[in-house]
Design goal:
The protein has one domain. The radius of gyration is 14 Å and the shape is globular. By secondary structure, it is α+β, with helices and mostly antiparallel strands. A 6-stranded mixed sheet has the order 3-2-1-6-5-4. The two termini are about 25 Å apart. It is about 25% helix and about 30% strand. The protein has 2 helices and 6 strands; from the N terminus they run αββββββα.
Length: about 120
C-alpha cells in the first residue's frame, strides 16, 4: 500500500522568495513551451501538486485564476534547465519555481531517484 501523504495549503499567497523565483523563471527562455509555473510543489504518486501561475489552457472559457491548486498528470520526465527543474507530463511541461516546505524537496528527490532506477533498468 502506498504511503499516505497529507498536504495542507493554508494560503495561496506566496512569500517574496516564491514570487521572486517565479519572476526569475518567467524571464528565461526554455527548450520547450511551459504550460504553467508551479510554486510550493510536492510530488505525490508521480504527480506534481502545487500552486500554479500562467497556466496555458486550451479553452479560454475555463481559464482559472493564478494562484489556484493544480495536480498534474503522471510525470514522464524531469530535467533541469538553468536554475529550474522542468516536468514533462501528458498535459504539457511544468516549471517548478519552489518546493513545498516540509516534504517538497524529499518527494522531488524520491522522484529523481526513481527516474534514475528506471534508466538503469532499461
Amino acid at each position: 500500500m502506498p504511503e499516505i501523504i497529507e498536504v495542507e495549503f493554508h494560503s495561496k499567497y506566496l512569500s517574496d522568495f516564491q514570487l521572486s523565483r517565479l519572476v526569475q523563471a518567467s524571464l528565461r527562455k526554455y527548450t520547450v513551451a511551459i504550460t504553467a509555473f508551479i510554486s510550493d510543489a510536492v510530488i505525490i504518486e508521480n504527480r506534481c501538486l502545487g500552486v500554479f501561475f500562467d497556466h496555458l489552457q486550451e479553452h479560454e472559457a475555463y481559464r482559472t485564476a493564478n494562484g489556484g491548486i493544480i495536480c498534474t498528470t503522471i510525470i514522464q520526465r524531469a530535467w533541469k534547465e538553468g536554475r529550474f527543474w522542468l516536468l514533462e507530463t501528458g498535459e504539457g511541461n511544468y516549471l517548478i519555481g519552489s518546493l513545498k516546505r516540509g516534504g517538497g524537496r524529499r518527494s522531488f528527490l524520491e522522484l529523481l531517484r526513481s527516474c534514475e532506477r528506471l534508466k538503469s533498468e532499461n
